[in-house]
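Q: For a teaching session next week I want to show students how multiple molecules come together into a single three-dimensional assembly. I've collected the sequence lines for a complex. Could you give me the predicted C-alpha coordinates for the whole thing so I can convert them for display?
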Amino acid sequence: MTTEDWPLWEVFVRSRRGLSHTHAGSLHAPDAEMALRNARDLYTRRGEGVSIWVVPSAAITASSPDEKDPFFEPAADKPYRHPTFYEIPEGVKHL
Amino acid sequence: MTVTVRTGAVLALGDDALVLSHRLGEWAGHAPVLEEEVALANIALDLLGQARVLLSLAGDEDELAYLREERAFRNLQLVEQPNGDFAHTIARQLYFSTYQRLLYAQLAAGDSEFTGLAAKAVKEVAYHQDHAEQWTLRLGDGTDLSHERMRRACEALWRFTGEMFQPVEGVDVDWAGMKATWLETVGDVLRRATLEVPEGPQSGAWTAGAGRQGLHTESFGRMLAEMQHLHRSHPGASW
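A: Of course. Below is the structure for the complete assembly, covering every listed component.
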Protein backbone atom coordinates (compact mmCIF):
# COMPACT_ATOMS: atom_id res chain seq x y z
CA MET A 1 0.00 0.00 0.00
CA THR A 2 1.21 3.50 -0.72
CA THR A 3 0.02 6.85 0.53
CA GLU A 4 -1.36 7.38 -2.98
CA ASP A 5 -4.25 5.17 -1.90
CA TRP A 6 -5.00 7.39 1.05
CA PRO A 7 -6.83 10.71 0.83
CA LEU A 8 -5.16 13.97 1.79
CA TRP A 9 -6.29 15.87 4.90
CA GLU A 10 -5.70 19.46 5.94
CA VAL A 11 -4.77 19.97 9.56
CA PHE A 12 -5.82 22.95 11.69
CA VAL A 13 -4.37 23.40 15.15
CA ARG A 14 -5.50 25.71 17.93
CA SER A 15 -2.46 26.59 19.94
CA ARG A 16 -4.25 28.08 22.95
CA ARG A 17 -7.75 28.50 24.27
CA GLY A 18 -9.29 31.67 22.89
CA LEU A 19 -7.35 31.63 19.65
CA SER A 20 -8.75 30.26 16.42
CA HIS A 21 -7.53 27.16 14.64
CA THR A 22 -4.82 27.88 12.13
CA HIS A 23 -3.67 25.77 9.22
CA ALA A 24 -0.67 23.67 10.20
CA GLY A 25 -0.15 21.47 7.15
CA SER A 26 -1.49 18.39 5.47
CA LEU A 27 -1.08 14.63 5.68
CA HIS A 28 -2.30 11.32 4.30
CA ALA A 29 -4.55 9.01 6.30
CA PRO A 30 -7.04 6.23 5.55
CA ASP A 31 -9.89 7.89 7.49
CA ALA A 32 -10.72 10.84 9.72
CA GLU A 33 -9.93 9.11 13.00
CA MET A 34 -6.47 8.11 11.82
CA ALA A 35 -5.95 11.56 10.30
CA LEU A 36 -6.56 13.06 13.75
CA ARG A 37 -4.00 10.76 15.32
CA ASN A 38 -1.43 11.36 12.60
CA ALA A 39 -1.97 15.08 13.02
CA ARG A 40 -1.30 14.74 16.73
CA ASP A 41 2.00 13.02 15.98
CA LEU A 42 3.07 15.35 13.18
CA TYR A 43 1.97 18.76 14.40
CA THR A 44 1.50 18.81 18.17
CA ARG A 45 4.31 16.71 19.59
CA ARG A 46 6.14 19.74 20.96
CA GLY A 47 3.14 20.99 22.88
CA GLU A 48 1.83 23.24 20.10
CA GLY A 49 -1.85 22.62 20.51
CA VAL A 50 -4.94 22.14 22.61
CA SER A 51 -7.31 21.21 19.77
CA ILE A 52 -7.01 19.74 16.28
CA TRP A 53 -9.35 19.78 13.27
CA VAL A 54 -8.83 17.62 10.22
CA VAL A 55 -10.68 18.33 6.99
CA PRO A 56 -10.60 16.32 3.76
CA SER A 57 -8.55 18.41 1.33
CA ALA A 58 -11.12 17.59 -1.35
CA ALA A 59 -13.77 19.42 0.68
CA ILE A 60 -11.95 22.73 0.46
CA THR A 61 -12.95 25.24 -2.21
CA ALA A 62 -10.02 27.53 -2.88
CA SER A 63 -9.72 30.77 -4.81
CA SER A 64 -7.82 30.43 -8.03
CA PRO A 65 -4.57 32.28 -8.76
CA ASP A 66 -6.25 33.49 -12.00
CA GLU A 67 -8.84 35.33 -9.92
CA LYS A 68 -6.18 37.09 -7.87
CA ASP A 69 -6.79 40.54 -9.36
CA PRO A 70 -10.58 40.75 -9.14
CA PHE A 71 -10.47 39.19 -5.69
CA PHE A 72 -7.72 41.12 -4.02
CA GLU A 73 -6.62 44.10 -6.08
CA PRO A 74 -9.53 46.42 -5.07
CA ALA A 75 -8.43 46.27 -1.45
CA ALA A 76 -4.92 47.51 -2.13
CA ASP A 77 -5.60 51.27 -2.17
CA LYS A 78 -8.07 51.52 0.71
CA PRO A 79 -5.92 52.04 3.79
CA TYR A 80 -8.94 53.35 5.72
CA ARG A 81 -10.14 49.78 5.96
CA HIS A 82 -7.21 48.95 8.20
CA PRO A 83 -7.76 49.35 11.90
CA THR A 84 -4.56 51.37 12.22
CA PHE A 85 -6.29 54.66 13.00
CA TYR A 86 -7.32 53.59 16.47
CA GLU A 87 -5.44 53.71 19.70
CA ILE A 88 -5.15 50.15 20.99
CA PRO A 89 -5.89 50.02 24.69
CA GLU A 90 -3.18 48.53 26.80
CA GLY A 91 -3.71 44.93 27.70
CA VAL A 92 -5.45 43.96 24.46
CA LYS A 93 -3.59 41.14 22.82
CA HIS A 94 -4.02 39.29 19.53
CA LEU A 95 -5.41 42.32 17.68
CA MET B 1 24.06 -12.05 37.69
CA THR B 2 22.58 -11.73 41.16
CA VAL B 3 20.58 -8.60 41.72
CA THR B 4 18.64 -7.23 44.65
CA VAL B 5 14.84 -7.31 44.63
CA ARG B 6 14.72 -3.59 43.99
CA THR B 7 17.20 -3.69 41.11
CA GLY B 8 15.40 -6.68 39.63
CA ALA B 9 12.11 -4.80 39.67
CA VAL B 10 13.64 -1.67 38.16
CA LEU B 11 15.35 -3.67 35.43
CA ALA B 12 12.18 -5.59 34.57
CA LEU B 13 10.23 -2.41 33.89
CA GLY B 14 13.15 -0.48 32.43
CA ASP B 15 14.30 -3.23 30.08
CA ASP B 16 10.77 -3.74 28.73
CA ALA B 17 10.68 -0.07 27.76
CA LEU B 18 14.24 0.01 26.41
CA VAL B 19 14.00 -3.12 24.28
CA LEU B 20 10.58 -2.31 22.80
CA SER B 21 11.79 1.22 22.09
CA HIS B 22 14.71 -0.17 20.09
CA ARG B 23 12.48 -2.56 18.17
CA LEU B 24 10.08 0.24 17.24
CA GLY B 25 13.04 2.41 16.28
CA GLU B 26 13.99 -0.22 13.72
CA TRP B 27 10.97 0.89 11.68
CA ALA B 28 12.63 4.25 10.98
CA GLY B 29 13.15 4.36 7.24
CA HIS B 30 11.06 1.22 6.71
CA ALA B 31 7.50 2.01 7.79
CA PRO B 32 4.73 1.55 5.21
CA VAL B 33 3.90 5.27 5.16
CA LEU B 34 5.63 8.39 6.42
CA GLU B 35 2.85 9.29 8.86
CA GLU B 36 3.07 5.87 10.49
CA GLU B 37 6.84 6.08 10.71
CA VAL B 38 6.50 9.25 12.78
CA ALA B 39 3.85 7.61 14.96
CA LEU B 40 6.03 4.57 15.69
CA ALA B 41 9.08 6.75 16.33
CA ASN B 42 7.04 8.86 18.76
CA ILE B 43 6.02 5.76 20.67
CA ALA B 44 9.63 4.56 20.67
CA LEU B 45 10.78 7.89 22.10
CA ASP B 46 8.14 7.80 24.85
CA LEU B 47 9.39 4.35 25.84
CA LEU B 48 13.02 5.44 25.69
CA GLY B 49 12.21 8.29 28.07
CA GLN B 50 10.63 5.83 30.49
CA ALA B 51 13.62 3.50 30.17
CA ARG B 52 16.07 6.29 30.98
CA VAL B 53 14.23 7.24 34.18
CA LEU B 54 13.89 3.61 35.26
CA LEU B 55 17.43 2.48 34.48
CA SER B 56 18.83 5.55 36.24
CA LEU B 57 17.20 4.22 39.41
CA ALA B 58 19.38 1.12 39.13
CA GLY B 59 22.69 2.71 38.16
CA ASP B 60 24.33 4.38 35.18
CA GLU B 61 21.82 4.30 32.32
CA ASP B 62 24.44 4.03 29.55
CA GLU B 63 26.31 1.27 31.30
CA LEU B 64 23.10 -0.67 31.87
CA ALA B 65 21.85 -0.22 28.31
CA TYR B 66 25.06 -0.68 26.39
CA LEU B 67 27.39 -2.84 28.46
CA ARG B 68 25.18 -5.57 29.91
CA GLU B 69 25.28 -9.05 28.47
CA GLU B 70 22.16 -10.69 27.08
CA ARG B 71 21.54 -12.81 30.16
CA ALA B 72 21.50 -9.75 32.40
CA PHE B 73 18.47 -8.25 30.64
CA ARG B 74 15.17 -8.77 32.45
CA ASN B 75 12.69 -7.79 29.72
CA LEU B 76 9.74 -9.89 28.63
CA GLN B 77 10.36 -12.10 25.64
CA LEU B 78 7.35 -10.46 23.99
CA VAL B 79 9.03 -7.08 23.54
CA GLU B 80 12.19 -8.51 21.99
CA GLN B 81 10.28 -10.35 19.24
CA PRO B 82 11.29 -9.12 15.77
CA ASN B 83 9.06 -6.53 14.12
CA GLY B 84 7.91 -8.95 11.43
CA ASP B 85 5.33 -7.39 9.14
CA PHE B 86 3.31 -4.36 10.22
CA ALA B 87 0.56 -6.57 11.66
CA HIS B 88 3.13 -8.31 13.91
CA THR B 89 4.30 -4.98 15.23
CA ILE B 90 0.72 -3.90 15.88
CA ALA B 91 -0.17 -7.15 17.66
CA ARG B 92 2.92 -6.80 19.85
CA GLN B 93 1.90 -3.19 20.58
CA LEU B 94 -1.66 -4.19 21.42
CA TYR B 95 -0.58 -6.92 23.84
CA PHE B 96 2.16 -4.91 25.50
CA SER B 97 0.61 -1.44 25.68
CA THR B 98 -2.58 -2.85 27.21
CA TYR B 99 -0.46 -4.56 29.85
CA GLN B 100 1.76 -1.55 30.44
CA ARG B 101 -1.21 0.78 30.80
CA LEU B 102 -2.80 -1.43 33.46
CA LEU B 103 0.53 -1.82 35.24
CA TYR B 104 1.33 1.90 35.27
CA ALA B 105 -2.22 2.80 36.31
CA GLN B 106 -1.82 0.61 39.39
CA LEU B 107 1.66 1.91 40.13
CA ALA B 108 0.47 5.50 39.73
CA ALA B 109 -2.25 4.88 42.31
CA GLY B 110 0.17 3.26 44.74
CA ASP B 111 3.04 4.59 46.75
CA SER B 112 6.45 3.39 45.57
CA GLU B 113 9.45 4.81 43.80
CA PHE B 114 7.64 4.07 40.52
CA THR B 115 4.64 6.28 41.37
CA GLY B 116 5.94 9.50 39.81
CA LEU B 117 7.09 7.92 36.58
CA ALA B 118 3.95 5.83 36.26
CA ALA B 119 1.64 8.81 36.75
CA LYS B 120 3.34 10.64 33.88
CA ALA B 121 3.85 7.64 31.61
CA VAL B 122 0.32 6.26 31.90
CA LYS B 123 -0.89 9.07 29.63
CA GLU B 124 1.73 8.24 27.04
CA VAL B 125 0.87 4.59 27.19
CA ALA B 126 -2.86 5.31 26.85
CA TYR B 127 -2.01 6.79 23.48
CA HIS B 128 0.12 3.76 22.53
CA GLN B 129 -2.81 1.51 23.34
CA ASP B 130 -5.19 3.64 21.32
CA HIS B 131 -2.80 3.57 18.36
CA ALA B 132 -2.56 -0.23 18.50
CA GLU B 133 -6.31 -0.60 18.92
CA GLN B 134 -7.12 1.65 15.94
CA TRP B 135 -4.79 -0.34 13.70
CA THR B 136 -5.99 -3.71 14.98
CA LEU B 137 -9.57 -2.71 14.11
CA ARG B 138 -8.60 -1.53 10.64
CA LEU B 139 -6.36 -4.45 9.76
CA GLY B 140 -8.61 -7.11 11.30
CA ASP B 141 -11.77 -5.70 9.77
CA GLY B 142 -10.04 -4.61 6.55
CA THR B 143 -9.24 -6.67 3.47
CA ASP B 144 -8.88 -10.46 3.34
CA LEU B 145 -5.12 -10.04 3.25
CA SER B 146 -4.93 -7.63 6.20
CA HIS B 147 -7.33 -9.79 8.23
CA GLU B 148 -5.24 -12.89 7.59
CA ARG B 149 -1.98 -11.16 8.50
CA MET B 150 -3.45 -9.67 11.67
CA ARG B 151 -4.87 -13.06 12.67
CA ARG B 152 -1.52 -14.74 12.10
CA ALA B 153 0.31 -12.10 14.12
CA CYS B 154 -2.08 -12.30 17.07
CA GLU B 155 -1.73 -16.07 17.18
CA ALA B 156 2.04 -16.10 16.77
CA LEU B 157 2.60 -13.75 19.69
CA TRP B 158 -0.08 -15.18 21.99
CA ARG B 159 2.29 -17.64 23.66
CA PHE B 160 4.45 -14.75 24.87
CA THR B 161 1.59 -13.04 26.71
CA GLY B 162 1.42 -15.28 29.78
CA GLU B 163 4.82 -14.09 30.94
CA MET B 164 3.50 -10.57 31.47
CA PHE B 165 1.50 -11.68 34.49
CA GLN B 166 4.21 -13.60 36.32
CA PRO B 167 4.55 -11.45 39.42
CA VAL B 168 7.74 -9.40 39.54
CA GLU B 169 9.14 -9.30 43.04
CA GLY B 170 9.26 -5.70 44.26
CA VAL B 171 6.45 -4.52 42.00
CA ASP B 172 3.43 -4.33 44.25
CA VAL B 173 0.34 -4.67 42.05
CA ASP B 174 -2.60 -7.04 41.70
CA TRP B 175 -1.20 -9.34 39.00
CA ALA B 176 -4.17 -11.69 38.83
CA GLY B 177 -6.64 -8.83 38.57
CA MET B 178 -4.49 -7.25 35.90
CA LYS B 179 -4.52 -10.43 33.86
CA ALA B 180 -8.31 -10.65 34.01
CA THR B 181 -8.72 -7.04 32.90
CA TRP B 182 -6.12 -7.53 30.16
CA LEU B 183 -7.93 -10.56 28.77
CA GLU B 184 -11.20 -8.66 28.79
CA THR B 185 -9.74 -5.57 27.10
CA VAL B 186 -7.73 -7.38 24.43
CA GLY B 187 -10.59 -9.81 23.81
CA ASP B 188 -12.96 -6.91 23.24
CA VAL B 189 -10.63 -5.25 20.71
CA LEU B 190 -10.05 -8.52 18.85
CA ARG B 191 -13.76 -9.26 18.64
CA ARG B 192 -14.54 -5.79 17.32
CA ALA B 193 -11.77 -6.35 14.77
CA THR B 194 -13.58 -9.56 13.68
CA LEU B 195 -10.66 -11.59 15.03
CA GLU B 196 -10.82 -14.43 17.50
CA VAL B 197 -8.99 -14.55 20.79
CA PRO B 198 -6.22 -17.05 20.02
CA GLU B 199 -6.67 -20.51 21.46
CA GLY B 200 -4.14 -22.17 23.69
CA PRO B 201 -2.92 -21.43 27.16
CA GLN B 202 -0.97 -18.29 27.86
CA SER B 203 1.25 -20.11 30.27
CA GLY B 204 2.33 -23.68 30.76
CA ALA B 205 5.02 -26.09 29.72
CA TRP B 206 4.94 -25.28 26.03
CA THR B 207 4.64 -21.55 26.23
CA ALA B 208 7.48 -19.12 25.98
CA GLY B 209 8.54 -16.69 28.64
CA ALA B 210 11.59 -16.66 30.83
CA GLY B 211 12.82 -13.22 29.93
CA ARG B 212 12.40 -12.06 33.51
CA GLN B 213 14.91 -14.75 34.48
CA GLY B 214 17.39 -13.56 31.84
CA LEU B 215 16.63 -16.19 29.20
CA HIS B 216 15.97 -14.69 25.80
CA THR B 217 14.98 -15.77 22.32
CA GLU B 218 17.34 -16.15 19.39
CA SER B 219 16.83 -12.79 17.76
CA PHE B 220 17.51 -10.83 20.93
CA GLY B 221 21.29 -11.32 20.75
CA ARG B 222 21.42 -9.82 17.28
CA MET B 223 19.28 -6.89 18.38
CA LEU B 224 21.58 -6.23 21.33
CA ALA B 225 24.67 -6.44 19.12
CA GLU B 226 23.24 -3.75 16.90
CA MET B 227 22.10 -1.62 19.83
CA GLN B 228 25.38 -1.88 21.72
CA HIS B 229 28.09 -1.99 19.08
CA LEU B 230 28.61 1.76 18.76
CA HIS B 231 29.04 2.30 22.47
CA ARG B 232 31.28 -0.73 22.78
CA SER B 233 33.45 0.32 19.80
CA HIS B 234 33.69 3.94 20.91
CA PRO B 235 33.29 3.99 24.70
CA GLY B 236 31.91 7.27 25.95
CA ALA B 237 31.01 8.53 22.47
CA SER B 238 28.54 11.40 22.55
CA TRP B 239 26.88 13.79 20.11
